Amino acid sequence: xxxxKSPPLKGIKVIELGTLIAAPFCSRILAxxxxxxxxxxxxxxxxxLRQWRKMYEGTSLWWYVQxxxxxxxxxxxxxxxxxxxxxxxxxxADIVVENxxxxxxxxxxIGYEALAKxxxxxxxxxxxxxxxxxxxxxxxxxxVIGESMGGMRYVTGxxxxxxxxxxxxxxxxxxxxxxxxxxxxxxxxxxxxxxxQMVDVALYEAVFSMMESLLPEFDVLGFVRERAGNALPGIxxxxxxxxxxxxxxxxGANNDAIxxxxxxxxxxxxxxDDAQLATNAGRVPRTAEIDSAIGTWTAAHDLDAVLAALxxxxxxxxKVYDVADIVKDAQYLARGMIEEHRLPDGKPVKLPGIxxxxxxxxxxxxxxxxxxxxxxxEVLTALGYDTAAQxxxxxxxxx
Length: 399
Description:
single chain, 399 residues, Rossmann fold, formyl-coa transferase, domain 3, six-stranded parallel sheet, 18 helices, elongated
């Protein structure tokens, strides 16, 4: 039997003061890799994500993913007694993750400065629309605002139509990932300095940082990148093409050698041997011609035949997957990306697997998202609150 190794973040205690997407996604990743995450929720219904999107037996199915491996306690942060509970939890915590509007925690005397006085080793990850400073810091800012202000929405969609959004809350998720990165950097710094610090992630900045060469192209050339549909402007060919059976195939053949293999597979030797098309610089001016040739070829064949032909010559291509394709895909299954769990009533449920894959200390799902306040008594008892004190706090609306 192989040795069972501790997860990489075992022993790291995280307090989550967050709702919905950015902060909970950040702490979810920490929990997946072994951190003890105590999620603080309002006694009045808890995290609103519990009621978002598709529901089963009164609870969002998204919740069971977003809150896996976390312990849920209820605390009224607006009450002095509730704020004291947070201070006690933070006294020996490693990380606090929060996504309140800047200034809210300070108003409740549980901001970074207040908690760092109690625990100088504490790291606080703060996720907000505009960051903790600047003229817009007090404005409300959700992921959609970050996607717009960060430049992503402007370049998403088709040139002759209004900007569109992706089908997920990508701005919040990008910010959450930066929150995890910042927390790991701060932990490493603490190893040498002994001190914690604040990690300030603004949603619009997280999105802006993903925008490739958008800024230098504008600054040096005055070029404003516009919407280009499914194409990747300046990188040719990379697009979505129709097939005979009414489906679509994504083909990325912008590498010079791959482009030549694609043209030969299409029996377009004229394009394969065209000296101008041997490099991306030469292909860009002839984008429409190349896309038309590829589209004509794919439209003459069914999707499976196109994929088989391209696989045979190592041209990157894929069907546009929906979730029904995902759950039966051999690659997903081989890498454990479709996990099987059970809902509270015993109904089987599939959850997405954990990313990234660590060879020695992989992440794991210990349990799915818990019921509201499921761990309140357990956590408060560990803090020294006896049964009578907990009853009093509950009567007072604190927990």
